[in-house]
Amino acid sequence: MKCVDKKQEAHLLKSGSCEGRPTVEAHALRSVTSSAESFWLDESVRQALRGQAGPGYSEAQHVGCEQLCRSLQRSQQKLDAEHQVATATWGAPLSLFSESAQQRATESGVHDWAILTVMKARRLVEEAAGLGDLTEVYKAQILTAQREKRKVLREPLLRHLERLDGLAEELQAHQPYLRAAKDAFSRPKADAKAETGLPSSPSVKNPTHEKESPVVILQPRSRPLMFGSLGAKPKEYMIRFLESAIDFVGAAATATGMSADVQSAEAENAATEEAAPPASTEVALPALETAVGTISQWLDVKEAIEESPPSPREVDWTSAQLLWQRCRRKSDRRWTLA
Q1: Whole-angstrom Cα distance, residue 169 to residue 165?
Q2: Where are the domains of the chain?
Q3: Which of the four, 59, 65, 75, 97, has the lowest number of CB atoms within 10 Å?
Q4: Region Disordered: what ranges (predicted)?
Q5: Adjacent-strand bridge partners of 22
Q6: 223-261 burial by CB neighbour count: b if 16+ within 10 A, else e?
Q7: Cα–Cα distance measured from residue 157 to residue 184, given in angstroms and rounded to the nearest whole number
Q8: Maximal CA-CA distance, the chain
Q9: Which one of 42-46, 64-68, 206-210, 227-231 scores highest in mean pLDDT?
Q10: Are 178 and 113 in contact (CB under 8 A)?
């Protein structure tokens, strides 16, 4: 036997191995210690979620996100272990035991208590699968709350942990009956009259209509203190926020003298607009008395028409007037320069 000193012996006992072979005592001690620590940690988490003082504390403690995730993971692992045991006992996934399989078992002479026992086991494992999905959803939201500095609801988490523990205990208590039902399915017609049922065989009952746990446990972000008194509606919140922002900018502009500069600039623009003459769409033409040159023949049309003898019918001057105005607009034909 190889001799070791006290330090090496303590190290081997701590590591749980001697000459490369694990010792049963070390593994058992480590398992018991780990189970006790896990139990107290889980119990403290549940007490904190209830708002009560945990074991060894005088008041309720704050629960961190990592503690919540670990507690959820441990409870889910216990339930998954019982689910695996039930599947191994039955020899196949219990979810495959459908109504057609139940009918075939009845026709082959399987006892009713065995069929009811398997049906209850199927219901339990289906509920376990649903709780497992909800556990993953809760863990993701807890990590999001840790990352975004937000809070989560306590009551749904506490109720979910209790459902995980209760379902794991129920599956564990149902294992002996499931094994007996498996034996009854293996020999359906053997001594059918002698065995009519187990004294404490469970009967299938409808799932209890418990309050369903909400999927969303992540609380919304807290609003800033300056907007804490605003309404809860998003539209009203945004309108009041914009009004507050406009008032804030106006007050800042007044304090820095920006508004006075703007008012003076507006006054200068108004004075400039009043002093400027109104813009005219027509071009001013020189008077006929001040013009130099000979009047064009185009302008003699009106005089020729006026000197012509009057006709018995009314004369329409519209065409002549239009012709005269058109001649005036053409600068190249208005005057014949000397």
Answers
A1: 6
A2: 64-222, 229-265, 294-308+317-336
A3: 59
A4: 184-214
A5: 17
A6: eeeeeeebeeeeeeeeeeeeeeeeeeeeeeeeeeeeeee
A7: 40
A8: 157
A9: 64-68
A10: no
pTM: 0.54
Residues 6+ apart with CB under 8 A from 78: 164, 165, 168
Q: How far is it, in rounded angstroms, from Cα 69 to Cα 45? A: 10
**pLDDT at residue 183 above 50?**
yes
Pairing relationship of beta strands 21-22 and 294-295 according to DSSP bridges: unpaired
How much is the pLDDT for 245?
A: 75
Strands 294-295 and 335-336: antiparallel
**HEC-encoded secondary structure of the chain:** CCCCCHHHHHHHHHHCEECCEECHHHHHHHHHHHHHHHHHHHHHHHHHHHCCCCCCCCCCCCCCHHHHHHHHHHHHHHHHHHHHHHHHHHCCCHHHCCHHHHHHHHHCCCCHHHHHHHHHHHHHHHHHHHHHHHHHHHHHHHHHHHHHCCCECHHHHHHHHHHHHHHHHHHHHHHHHHHHHHHHHHCCCCCCCCCCCCCCCCCCCCCCCCCCCCCCCECCCCCCHHHCCCCCCHHHHHHHHHHHHHHHHHHHHHHHCHHHHHHHHHHHHHHHHHHCCCCCCCCCCCCCCCCCCEECHHHHHHHHHHHCCCCCCCCCCHHHHHHHHHHHHCHHHHEECC
The rounded distance, in Å, linking the Cα atoms of 42 and 37 is: 9
Computed on alpha carbons and rounded to an integer, the radius of gyration of the chain in Å comes to: 49
- Out of 123-132, 172-181, 233-242, pick the least confident: 233-242
With a CB cutoff of 8 Å and minimum separation 6, the contacts of 192 are: 109, 111
Q: Do the beta carbons of residue 48 and residue 54 sit within 8 Å?
A: yes
Mean pLDDT score of the chain: 72
Q: Which two tokens stand for residue 283?
A: 């071009």
